[in-house]
Known about the structure:
Strand content of chain B: under 5%
Order of helices and strands of chain A: HHHHHHHHH
Number of helices of chain A: 9
Order of helices and strands of chain B: HHHHHHHH
Oligomer: heterodimer
Radius of gyration of chain B: 17 Å
Number of strands of chain B: 0
Shape of chain A: globular
Largest sheet of chain B: none
Amino acid sequence: MTSDEHEVDLTLADLDADGAIGDAVARLYGETRGGFLCKAALGSAAVAGALALPSRAAAAKLGDTGILNFDLVFEYLQASFYTEADRVGTVQRMSKPLEVWARTLGAHERAHVAILKKVLGRAAVKSPVFDFRGVTDSPAKFTKTAVAMEDLTVALLVGQAARFKNRQLSAAVFSLLTVEARHAAWARHLSGFTPVLASIDRPKTLSEVAHIVAQTHFISRRARLSSKRPPPFTG
Amino acid sequence: MDQEVSAVLPASESPVTGKGRALSRAGALRALAGGGVAAAGLVGFSSASAAPSRTQDQKILNYLLVLERLQAAFYASARRAGGLSAELQKFAAVVGRNELEHVRLLSTLLGAAAKPAPAFHFGSAVSGAFARTAVELEEAAVGAYIATGASLTDRVMADVGSICAVEGRHAAWIRSIAGVLPAPAAADPAESQQRVLAVVRRFTR
Lengths: 235, 205
């Protein structure tokens, strides 16, 4: 039953209903290109060209607050993802071990949101509204997507740990990245995948992570900075 | 932001459990502060507030190298001793390979400054007590990386972060096999050098 499959396709498609991830991308790519991306037709050559990775200088200009806010958006995504799967009853339909896994991870990701919001204070970006488009309705889809998200979060945090000017933030990220790595390994073990991808967890830069998310066509419509709808769930 | 930052320093005790209690700033400080890296008892190391240096890198890397050598030797010894279930055999094979690679990577970072391996003796730890001992070793490694990682110079910190994440995977994997909660806390605590070296010494006598 155990598979040696290492890679799980990321299925974050269409999750970014109000463009929160789009906003994060815009901060990386610059407002002009970010705005263009949101307006351009998906699949066009122009969009493909615009999704070329931004310069390292642009990504480097983010600073500690910008990096933490990018991490916060990811934690909002994860927290909302687990919370929604629980809310709609998908978690209860899973086996007991998977139920424990999903509930524990939900609690942890909500705690991570709280931690990062506390650290960022007024600089924290607001919780986005996500549309998980049925992924959280299916135990199989939910679990597969969760595995992919956890692996991606590890790569994100590994890539960021050494980028902070403030080394206390680096220390905090170390203590969070090992937890995300536990999450990833745990999910993989329960799903029948090998828990370890390789001897080292390769880092991904913010622009690489944004690129991966962009490739799933999450930009479904023009980004809005705020939503008039009350958020159905904020993780 | 600095005051809030101290709230998320890895602590040697009482990590945030993520169990849904309201996280006031005072609560966060109580839950996480524990003096942070300084209270992790980094005897012989500068605290994270001291400037990183090549000399400090070498001390930290040699400390982490001992832990990787210990783990690599433990898994190799367990595989030689035999008697493990198929699941634990697979775990020991995969993780043992990882630890050998970690030894190689840390040794490369250290170059001539790498300290040689001590002699390890495992006794029944590699058979009847395998799973329990593996949990202990992986958790010691995770705690050691968290206690020291942020004190490294930037480039070395980035490399060590990649290794540290895999130790987290190892810990969760063996805990999952052993029927113990794989991710016990929302934020993993730092472990003191004193406690980690006490674990090491059990296998070097």
